[in-house]
Amino acid sequence: MRRAQETVWQATEAGLTTARPGATFADLFHAMQGVMAAGGAADANVGRLGHGLGMQLTEFPSITPWDRTLLVPGMVLTLEPGMEFAPGRMMVHEENLVVREGGPELLTVRAPRELPVIG
Fold first, then answer.
1. How confident is the model at residue 43 (pLDDT cuts 50, 70, 90)?
2. What is the number of alpha carbons within 13 Å of residue 81 lying toward its C-beta?
3. Main-chain dihedrals φ then ψ at residue 27, nearest 5 degrees
4. pTM, whole model, 2 decimals?
5. 10-36 residues labelled b (16+ CB within 10 A) or e (exposed)
6. By three-state DSSP, how is residue 27 classified?
7. Model confidence over 55-77: pLDDT tens digits?
8. Which is nearest to 64 in space by CA: 81, 43, 39?
């Protein structure tokens, strides 16, 4: 679980670094997917790693390798990397952000880097 936590945290970090005006949703995917694969994601084809966020909550565009939608200032989206770290066990992070000229503005409190341990 700790490895999966670190992997999805680092993938989100890669997405935050990439989320600038002029980048594409595919750029976000490739930045995050590279971290996921290096972190041991069992399936390198992890599917969608986030999406637009608006009136329908989950909406177009999608963070996929084929979505060439440009990020523009004011666009609201989610970074949502997730990986299966054991059969039937998933670790998923979701951070919501607004694309700004100077970099992304988080709308959520960033997930902790280290997995909280209870008990």
1. low
2. 29
3. -60, -45
4. 0.90
5. bbbbbbbebbbeebbbbbbbebbbebb
6. helix
7. 776 778 999 999 999 999 999 99
8. 81
